[in-house]
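Input protein
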Amino acid sequence: MTLKFYFDEDAAEQALVQALRSRGIEVIVPHEVGLLGADDLQQLLWCADHAYVLISHNISDFCRHHREFLTRGENHAGLVLVRQQSLSIGERLRRLVKLSASRSSAELRNRVEFLSAWGA
């Protein structure tokens, strides 16, 4: 199964979302699914229920949620974490397209990927 991306509020940039969609990658943002203003855990639970990989700049909180999920034996669809202001929109686009082409949803299940590792 191909990857579907959910950008949290901090990571959802219109230009990036549109560029990914124009390449045939399914992308959802919080206001499209009624999660505008939802906390991190609510968003991660929604993504787990709907098989969306969550993309965020909130590295520390989502690493903690990831550990807690695994400790409780719960599953999530995967996390892609991006250090804020570390990559241009074009570079994030290239790396997310590469990730999408290289990994299946099964391969990202219960995993954390750092977008910085998906360079050239």
Residues 4-118 form one domain. Strands lie at 4-7, 26-28, 53-56, 79-81, 112-114. The chain has one domain: 4-118. The mean pLDDT is 95.
